[in-house]
Write a structure and sequence with these properties.
Oligomer: single chain
Helix content: 10-25%
Distance between the termini: 7 Å
Strand order of the largest sheet: 3-4-2-1-12-11
Strand content: 25-35%
Order of helices and strands: EHEEEEEEHEHEEEE
Number of strands: 12
Amino acid sequence: MRIGTWNVEYAATREKNVRRLALLEEQDCDVWVLTETHDDLDLSMQHAAVRSAQRPTGRNGGRWVTIWTRFPIVRTIPLIDPRRTVAALIGAPTGPLLVYGTVMPWASDRGDNTSDEPVRNWSEHHRIVVQQGEEWADLRCQYPNIDLCVAGDLNMNLGGPHYYGTTQGRRLLRAAMAESDLFCATATERIPPGALSHPPIDHVLLPMVWESRSTVASTWEGRVGTGPRLSDHSGLAVAVTL
């Protein structure tokens, strides 16, 4: 089973979407968590979609997260923040799998704060990491016999040299992962050396019991070869041995 995630920079322009779609098809993932995406990037020939609520980006159809899956969608799961996150229970070969897709805040993200008061960098990120971690733990309690996968743009690197994020954010995320028995399958130490120009900030978190059966199967940069830039993020695919 292959699970991939990629921030596609709101899937702008038809020409670039042809290239993005070709790259996604080449990766052959059974489950995709695409972030900063758009309905124009359509994988419906082989996958079914569960989407977060629309986000006003100037083009109707912009989403923070869309989950695409080849496996049957049993049901969608209501979440605290339907714009920033989306979750679905799917029928994976390993058994029922709860997939939770997210975009965590970036450094200067103000969230829903519309006042003129200054907001400290990373404060919204730290708040959301805790909020989402508590939601993961609640979902584990609600579905105690179902595996949980969290994937998307976490806006921090885990392991390796510092690239993006904060020490506090990483500490909060690791605590949330431990509470829900998750490990990061895309931590820097698990990426093949030299595969990416910098540590990834998009991640796939999987059940701890899958750690020995999971590997980073593929990585790619936002610009492939001499072609146009398709994203300001790299992408990753994780393979789980069934």
